[in-house]
Amino acid sequence: MKVGVSNLRLKFAGAPSLLFEDLSLHIEEGEKVLFLGPSGCGKSTLLQVLAGLIPNAVPVPMKADETVICESTGVVFQDPDAQFCMPYVDEEIAFVLENRAVLQEEMKGLIQFYLKKVGLSFQNPHIEISTLSQGMKQRLAIASMIALEPEVIMLDEPTALLDPEGTSEVWSTIKKIEAKQTMIIVEHKIDEIIDFVDRIVLFNSEGAIIADTDPSTMFSFYKHKLKEYGIWYPEVWEEHMKEIASLQGTRRGKEVLSVTNLKGYRGKNPKIEVPSITVCEGEWVAITGENGAGKSSLLLSLMNVMKTSGEKKVSNNVLKTVHDSRNQLAFVFQNPELQFITNSVYEELAYSLKMMNDSNVDEKVTAWLTSYQLEHVKSLHPYQLSTGQKRRLSVGTALFGSQPVLLLDEPTFGQDAQNTFQLLQLFEELRAKGMIIIMVTHDEKIVKHYATRQWVIEEGLLVSDRNLERVVEGNAHAMDS
Amino acid sequence: MQWTLNYEETWLHRLNPAFKLIFFLVLFLLLLFIHNPNMITNVTVVPLLLLLFSTGHQKKVLLILILPFLLLFFSSASSMMFFGQGSTTWWKWGLIHITEESFYRGLHIGFRALNFALLGLLFALTTRPVYLFYSLIQQLKVPPRFAYSFMAAVRILPVMVEEFQQLRAALLIRGVKKKKGIGRITQTVTLYAVPLLSQSIRRAHRIAVAMEAKRFNNKERTYYYKPSFSKFDLIFLLYIAIGFGLAFWMSGAFPYFDITDVRQK
C-alpha cells in the first residue's frame, strides 16, 4: 500500500455528524485513482488526509486505526489564484526548490526544466504570474508540484475554475507526466480523463464509499448515480437533451433592445465597441470570445456601470444611468457572493421589492422561493448556501421586477452538471415567456443546444453576429428570421 | 490591469535591501537631531538629487508622487507658523499669530517632514519587496515563515482591489440605498468589509495550505536570491556622508537665516 487509511473517523467543528465514519481506502503504487461524488461529500477532505495536510496543516479532529502517508506527495489545488505565494513565475518554482534545499546555482536550470515539462517555455521566466491566463496558472501549479519530485500526485479539481480550453491544456499536461506515477484525482468534469484512470471510487452524499471499481464497470452499473451527483461524464449532454424532449424553436417577437454606436470606456480607451444591434423578444444570445476580449465589458456598458457613449434603448426607454438600466435589465454577476447584501435568503429576495414599496412582498417572495427551490433554506445566510443555491439566489435577486432582459456573466461556470441543467431550464422557461437572455459563456454545448444567436467578441469588437439553429433531437426547427 | 510601475534598474536598486532599511532608519533618527534650519534646508538637496536622477522611474511618475509630499510640507510648516508661540510678533489676526520664532520653527518642521518623505519615497521606489524579505531573512535572520507570509500577502492585495471594483459595481446594480448620517458609515463598512474579508480569509487559508503542500517548513533551506554587499553600498554611504558634511559646512559658511537653533527662546 502506497497511501491509505483504515477506519477513518473525521468531523468538522460545528458539523452535526461525522463526515467519515469508519472509512477505509488503500491505494497501491502506480495506481491512478479518481474520486467521484456529489459536492460536499468529503472527496477533497479525504485527499487532504491522504496528502498529510489534515491534521498537520489544517487542524481537523480525526482518528484512524492506520494512516499511510507518502512523505513525498505533490498537490495541485482548484483555485488558480490561491496557490502561489510569490509574484513571479521563476520565484514560485524557486520557492519549491528552496524548500527542497536545492543549491542556488542549479535553480535557474531546474526552473526552465520544470516549466518545459508543462509546456510553458519562456525565454526569461521572470514573468508576473498575474499576467498568465487561468489555464497557464494551473500549468504553473503543476510545474511547481512536479518540482517537488513527488512519488504521489494529488489533484484536487484542478480544472473546476477553467474554461474548456484551459481544461484540455491541463489534462494533456498531466497525461504527459511519467506513467508510473501514483495519482489521486478529484474531479467533476471527467470526459477527458476517463481513459486515463484505472480505478474509480464513488462516494455518496454521506461520505461513504458506494463503489470502488474500474471505469467500465462504473459506467455500466452506476451511471444513474453519476447523473444524480451532477458529474460531467461523457454523454451527459446528449442524455440531457433527450430528457427535456424538445426545446421550442426560435420565434422572433417584437424588437426590444436596441443599441447604437455603443462604446464602453475604461479610462480613455474604449474596451468594447458595438456599432448597431437589435434584439427581439424570446432570443437567447450567447456572447463568446477569448478571456479579456471585452465580453463582460459589454454587459457592464449596457448596465451603465462603465462610462459609455452611444445609445441604448429597451422598448423605447433610453438607458442613461445605472438606475434606468436596472429597471430594464436584470444583471447576474459571475461571483454570486459579491451580489448579496443582506443576512438571509428571504431578505435578499425581498430587498428590491421593499425598496420599491411593493405591497405584497411576502406573497411574491414565497412564490420565488418555491420556483428557485430555496424555501427550505430561506432563513440561512446567503454565504451558507451551496454553489448551486447561491447561483439560483443571485438570479432571483436580479429578477426582482418585470425586466424584459436578463444579462448573465458566465452563470454556469464552476457548476456541476445537475445545477447547470437546472439553471438552463430556468432560463429557458423565462425565454419561452418572451424574456431576452444574453449570456457570456465559454461552454460550446450551451451555445449549440440552447442559444438562438451568437455574438463573438474579439479585442473589444463585435466581429460576428449570427442566428443559430437550435439543435433538437429528431426534428430540426426552421427559423423565421 | 497593470499594478506595477515600469522602471529602469539603477545602482540604487542594487543596494543591499536590509542595509538600506537600517541605514534609512538611522538617517530618520539623525534628522531628528538637526535643529539648525540652515542645515536642514541644505540636507534636503541630498535625497532630492537621488530621487530626481537615480531612481530609474519616469519623471511624470515622480512628479505625481512628490505632489502630496509638497502638500505635507506646506501644511505642517504653516500650522506651526500660524499657531506657534514666540516673542517677536510679525503679524497677528484673530487666532493667527505669526512670530519670528514660530516662522522658523514652522519652516524647520516643514523641511524635516519633506526629508522624511523624500527618503521614504526613495526607499519605496528602489526596493522590491521580494528582495527586501530575502535580505531580511539572510542578513537580519528574520524567520522565513514570517517573511514568506508577508510576500504571499503582498500578492493578495491586487486581487482585493479587483474584487473591490466588482463589489462596487454589484452594489450599484443592486441599487443599494445609501443611509444618512452615522448609519451610512456602518452600512458601508458592512457592505464592503464582510464580502471582501470573507473572500480574503478563505484565499489566505488556501494559499497557506498550498504553501504547506509545497513542503514549506522551518527546516534548512536554500535561497534563490542571495543579496550581498557591493561597491554600491559603499558609494551610497559616501554620498550621504559627503552630502551631509557639505550641508553642515554650507550652513555655517553661507547661512540663509539668522537663527541657528530653532529650540532657542
Keyphrases for this structure?
heterodimer, A: 481 residues, alpha/beta, Rossmann fold, 2 domains, 6-stranded mixed β-sheet, 20 strands, globular, disordered C terminus, B: 265 residues, mainly alpha, two-stranded antiparallel sheet, 69% helix, ABC transporter ATP-binding protein (chain A), ATP-binding (chain A), cell membrane (chain A)
Brief account:
The complex is a heterodimer of chains A (481) and B (265). Chain A is α/β, with parallel strands linked by helices and 481 residues long.
Q: Oligomeric status of the shown chains?
A: heterodimer
Number of helices of chain A: 14
Radius of gyration of chain B: 24 Å
Query: Count of DSSP helices of chain B?
Result: 8
Proportion in helices of chain A: 25-40%
Mean pLDDT of chain B: 88
Biggest sheet record of chain B:
2 strands, antiparallel
Tally of extended strands of chain A? 20
In the residues of chain B, how many domains can be counted? 2
> What class, by secondary structure content of chain A?
alpha/beta
Contiguous runs where pLDDT drops below 50 for at least 5 residues of chain B:
none
Distance from first to last alpha carbon of chain A: 64 Å
Order of helices and strands of chain B: HHHEEHHHHH
Please state how the strands of the largest beta sheet of chain A are arranged side by side. Answer: 6-7-8-3-9-10
How big is the Rg of chain A? 24 Å
Class inferred from helices and paired strands of chain B: mainly alpha
Instruction: Quickly give the CATH architecture of the largest domain in chain A.
Output: 3-Layer(aba) Sandwich
Count of the separate structural domains of chain A: 2
By CATH, the topology of the largest domain in chain A is Rossmann fold
